[in-house]
Amino acid sequence: MILLDNRVSDLVRGYDRVSQADLRLQTEWRQHLLQKYASRRDKHTSAIGVYVERARVLKPQLSIIAFVPLAMLIGGLVVTVVGVLLNVYAGTELTWSIGGVSLIIAGALGIGLPTLLWLWQVKLAKPAAPTHPLREDLLARLTPQWREKLHGALPVTTLDHRDAGARDFIEHLQSLSADSTYILYRLRQTRDEEIDVTVLGARGIWVFVLGRDAMSEEQLRQQWHRMVKAVFQTFLTRAPDLTKRFPALEPIKGGGVLTDPKAWDQEITSAPIIPGLDDRAIFGLIDALLEQHHASGGDAATISMSAHATKMIRQAEARLRGWMNQ
Asked: What was the pLDDT predicted at 131?
């Protein structure tokens, strides 16, 4: 389960935009990239042909250029050895040896020039093969990245026993394996009360009230009923089409959480999936709840998931255009 950031808004519009962008990436942009890659491969093949021919012509030329300094180098070695032998056995000066060393140095420098020319023209100038666009992760799906922005966080500190209980309960819910299921913490559907924990996903909706000191079970039950009524009123007002389309959303489930955070595991994870209640419909329900939350005085600052999707799409398309224009 994912703990939602209560500040998010425009989930359906954002989801639609990022889903459509993913479709364009895998169809239109994929085709453009592969066509561009094929064109670059053709150019690379032509460039390799030119390179091979240039290397073939250059090789004998460099061999001729390197012959003279190579002869100087070998001659210098011979003269140096002769000079040393004459010095040892005949007592002559080291003039021959000094001359031989000079020839060795000159020969080495002379060989270095064609060697550098060979490296430049043959090794370093070899055309690099174009990189396949699918290996550069240019078409990575945007929807999973967009979903990351939905994640919220629990407060760093707890104010009271209720907060501590909610933290334990939510942390436990997050450990459960339940795809497309979201947790809302301190959701406000009226100006007077906050719902401690709301769980919403493909299996339905649960509203939970955390037990407080000096609160009887009857008071807990009455508070839960008020909150359930407020949630359903929000759906009737802000998402009437979804309410009609998915009658199985009613009744809203849940209740009071007194001590054991695991008490509701079986009910949540084993509830049947509501047919047709896909991600887009779930986001529509969440949009309704959060619109009412913001209208009731909760989290004045909002994060538009539609604007976030637009920003992501622009960045992705800019990367693609940059690759196309390389």
From this structure: 82
